[in-house]
Amino acid sequence: MSLEFNKVIDQVQRMGRYAGKRNLSHSDRLELALERFYRLTDLDPVHDRIHLVRTSGVSGYRGATPLPRPYSEIIAGVGDAPPMPESATLIAADGSQVYPDQHESSLYYLVNIGIYVYHHGAQRLPAQFTAPELAYADSKIKDGDGRVINNQTVNARRTLAEMQWLTRQAAEYRDEARPLVTLHDGPLLKFFGATEVTDAHQIERDYMQALRELYDVRAVLCGYIDRPRSTSLISLLHLMELAEGEINEVVLKTNGDLEGLTDESLLRHVLVQPGQRSAMMTQNSPQNAEYKNQGAEFEIAFFYANVAPFGQPVIARFDVPLWVAREPAVVDALHALLLHQCGIQGRKHYPYALTRADEMAFVSSVEKDQLNQLINIELLKNGIHPEMSNKLQTKGLARGERRQHRLRG
Amino acid sequence: MAVMTQSEIVGRVLRASTTGFDCGTRGSTIDERHVFGSFVKVPIADDRSMYAYGLIYAIRIEDDPLARELVMASIVDNTALLDQRENRMVPVEIGVINIGFQSGGMLMQALPPRPPLSLSEVQLCSGDEIYVFTQRFEFFRLVLSASEVPSDELLAAAVRYAAWAYPDQERYEFLVRCGRQLAGLLSHDLKRLTRVLALIKP
């Protein structure tokens, strides 16, 4: 037996009761947040407050800020679904990976990128392809100290490869219908921690280079975040409620009486009509400041939208660089195109192009086993006898072909 | 019918037994070659000296979770439709019941001695092959006694399909001979006989 349900059922019941109570206090906080949100109809006090936290000795504010003037939008403002552009080109890239496994017969990792090109407004067959890259050389799979790289490093390299493939494809499709939208699954602000990721600084430099190349072809780069968990807007509401003398690092570490709320939980009650979007904002963080230092156009902005074509709101977050955010017509086109994409899959509100890119990229466990077999054959041809670790072999014995004993009916 | 005059690939064998086999093809290639009741053949020897003959009795179009979501959309996006049919290779499975085999120059209306191997090419029989094969009717009994297929509808569809392999002046006579054969086989079940005869009546 793996899980004995008789031992967990009491805990499941307690969990249900806890969730019910939590919901009650959640609704009180939500009401408070909504009241504060609808008060933010004037941009000047918001700009003043952001100026204060940026210029005083106080640090630690990680919340939302309006876009720089003259591009800033009223925080409490709501934009309706814009008209659809007649034509556009959408390029989506997504990746998957096989992590290095010291228990396997050979040490390698695989990054597989799926690319999908959707021609909006044209009866054209979408283009699709995959770009697998097998890394096996010591220089790729070991760090400077000779240790096998960790999974975070593989993830970082996969993320970089996704962005680089978007860059290549954007260059290839630069003469196709505009806007030329390049879609990435996830936020655009990346943190490649130097303590966890091997060659983090190089990956950061290459990532910024990819952004620069996308800017050069004026691609409409967008990071799509499904089920966003961020609290940037809630943090702004908290900041705006504080008296000037109360602002300090300790107070900014939490969202005070709004702690526990997310932007998504608030905006589900604001963006109630299908297709509506929030104001465009940026996130105040050292990381975003670093992007901005590379050039004003590289600061990352975001907005939220209700991507459900009907029924209960489904809130998604869209990250865009400032070169996109400061062009209202381009933002409208992107907004409309992504609403359309999210309406293609019936009950599932997620961009179709990203779904397909993910499908292309996905490496199943069966495919991983087949790849291992192929590698083993090649190793044998070269006089190497591959063998899995004892641990992996015995795991296979215990898990494989397990029979369940049942009572006869 | 063009399909009656030339052999064409219907699909490739996925799984097989001596009583029948399933073959698969891409959704985008489904056309007049894939017809309920049509005659197909598949090699059961590497040197193509031996073929199994069969009738298509089922054509199944498989779904997947994405396809199930796409049909839930209020309007199916044209590009997504094209994408599904051309890029995603919607799998089509075709069920075939064996009705005979050909070994050397000999044609037998009985179950083949062995099944075809996976990925063998399944071809549509030519008009000439159907004409030769349907000179005898032992395969009627195989079809009528098969439990896993809609036997009455299948046999009627096969007879109608085969009739087009006959010259105009022989077609009526062929159908009458089929009717007589059926009368003998189904004399114990007049309701069933009446129904099958109605289905093949010219």
Explain what you see.
The complex is a heterodimer of chains A (409) and B (202). With 409 residues, chain A is of the alpha+beta class. Chain A has 2 domains: 44-361, no CATH class; 365-398, no CATH class. Chain A is 43% helix and 16% strand. Chain A is built from 14 helices and 9 strands. Chain A has helices at residues 5-39, 43-55, 138-141, 151-172, 200-216, 232-241, 249-252, 263-267, 286-293, 322-325, 328-343, 352-361, 365-381, 390-399; strands at 64-66, 88-98, 109-120, 127-135, 180-185, 220-225, 281-283, 300-306, 315-321. Chain A has a 9-stranded mixed beta sheet, with helices on both faces. Chain A is globular and about 75 Å long. The model of chain A has no long low-confidence stretch (mean pLDDT 92). Chain B is α+β, with helices and mostly antiparallel strands and 202 residues long. Chain B has one domain (7-200). Helices cover 36% and strands 26% of the residues of chain B. Chain B contains 7 helices and 7 strands. Chain B has a 6-stranded antiparallel beta barrel. In chain B, helix 5 (151-163) packs parallel to helix 7 and helix 6 (168-185) runs antiparallel to helix 7 (190-200). The longest helix of chain B is centred in the last third of the chain and has 18 residues, at 168-185. The radius of gyration of chain B is 18 Å and the shape is globular. Chain B starts with 8 loop residues before the first strand and ends with a helix. The interface between A and B is medium-sized, with 22 and 16 residues.
Produce the secondary structure layout.
The complex is a heterodimer of chains A (409) and B (202).
Chain A: H1 5-39, H2 43-55, E1 64-66, E2 88-98, E3 109-120, E4 127-135, H3 138-141, H4 151-172, E5 180-185, H5 200-216, E6 220-225, H6 232-241, H7 249-252, H8 263-267, E7 281-283, H9 286-293, E8 300-306, E9 315-321, H10 322-325, H11 328-343, H12 352-361, H13 365-381, H14 390-399
Chain B: E1 9-16, E2 20-26, E3 39-43, E4 50-61, H1 65-70, H2 78-87, E5 91-103, E6 106-108, E7 121-124, H3 127-133, H4 138-144, H5 151-163, H6 168-185, H7 190-200
Antiparallel strand pairs in B: 1-2, 1-7, 2-5, 3-4, 3-7, 4-5, 5-6
Helix pairs in contact in B: 5-7, 6-7
